[in-house]
Amino acid sequence: MNSKPLRFGAVLCTRGSVTHLVDQARLAAESGCDVVLLPDHLGYSAPLPSLVAVATAVPSVRVGTCVLNAAFYPAALLARDVAAVDSATGGRLEIGLGAGYVAEEFAMAGLRFPTPAQRLRMVAEHLTRIRAAFADPDYSPTPVQPAPPIMIGGAGDKMLALAAAHADIISVLTFGPESGLVQRVQYVKERAGARLDQIELSFPFGQLAIDDPTDVPESQLHSMATVLDGPVEAAAERIARMRHELGISYFTFSIGEGRGVKWPTLEKLIDRVRG
């Protein structure tokens, strides 16, 4: 059994106003989520200023990004911005970093789409710059946390190797069946070596098919590890098994329109796993 505390995060894939986003964050907290996370995609609210609004309105949760598209930002500017958010949220920020993968979004933003190797280097540069800023007692804006939790999400060998060497939280992605997740987790453990005890393993459920399984194509329902189907009892047993067998202690759920779960059901699921 993983000795790290069991945690749940809600990734709010919510379009519309920041006020609506804050309302959804309140529901996430009431459902038992420990962390409210925001994605970083065009078409959604800008994550960093929105996290300040969420943290102000919902003081019981930590807040984070899942995940910042590192290639969108110059490293020095992002370090400044996340330090300001940490200060504004009272040290409740968890920083999720990713390489970015949607070429069309770069085109829409008027940015060049870097190569995979360049994006990987950018993630490493951001991580280093953020850690240095937070650890510097003279840095301004002054963050609350001297060492904020940094999460790296990825599926490929190079990204997971980087995460195993440097991240506090690793969100292990897989786009196939659970057997692929087992292989990816084993790879992380091998690369982490002695660091493994310092790492919190996370897994993102990108689609929930508990209240309305018709939201998920039949071909995906049982063939993709990121799909969590019902009933609640079966979903809870699967999460408990993943925690016991793989050592994953932090589970995140993508919540939004057409995601196949309602807040009361998520509350029942979290209560069942914890209880």
TrEMBL record:
Pfam families: Bac_luciferase (PF00296). Residues 16-224 form the Luciferase-like domain. InterPro entries: Lucif-like_OxRdtase_MSMEG_2516, Luciferase-like_dom, Luciferase-like_sf, SsuD_RutA_monooxygenase. Signal peptide: none annotated. GO terms for molecular function: alkanesulfonate monooxygenase activity. It comes from the Bacteria. PANTHER family: ALKANESULFONATE MONOOXYGENASE, ALKANESULFONATE MONOOXYGENASE-RELATED. This is Oxidoreductase.
